Amino acid sequence: xxxxxxxxxxxxxxxxxxxxxxxxxxxxxxxxxxxxxxxxxxxxxxxxxxxxxxxxxxxxxxxxxxxxxxxxxxxxxxxxxxxxxxxxxxxxxxxxxxxxxxxxxxxxxxxxxxxxxxxxxxxxxxxxxxxxxxxxxxxxxxxxxxxxxxxxxxxxxxxxxxxxxxxxxxxxxxxxxxxxx
Length: 181
What we know:
- By secondary structure, the chain is an alpha/beta fold.
- The protein has a single domain, classed as Double Stranded RNA Binding Domain (2-Layer Sandwich), CATH 3.30.160.670.
- About 15% of the residues lie in helices and about 45% in strands.
- The protein starts with a strand and ends in a 7-residue tail after the last helix.
């Protein structure tokens, strides 16, 4: 039996590599924003949402550098903006190949039958997404919401890998921030 294999992986790029999406509030007055304060960052782990994750100080440091570059300063209370941060990981299926068997047609006096079979080869990849929300404290509405997704290696990331991924994500995200310092 002949098998015809279409290898799609060479033709397709990963669907989730470095995807950045932002949603600015058109009514937000970015010239007015000077200060910010944090809500506890939330990291989704295997055991649920963790507001005391060891990565939280790193998240605040890396995102705080980006905010500082945009002219914003952190305060403990009375800020213009409140920051919500979520980090989630997910598994994404990727179709690697489709296998078709040879088509078989049998014809008799009273009947015709067609048989073939199709199978797919699927690989599961890890994806991480950083969600970042700036909330205007006066209007209680989102001023700017952004998210960035990227592929993650399988297994537990080392601290330097976490820092590298977060730096890359924050830099890409803040390229779309509406105000330059």
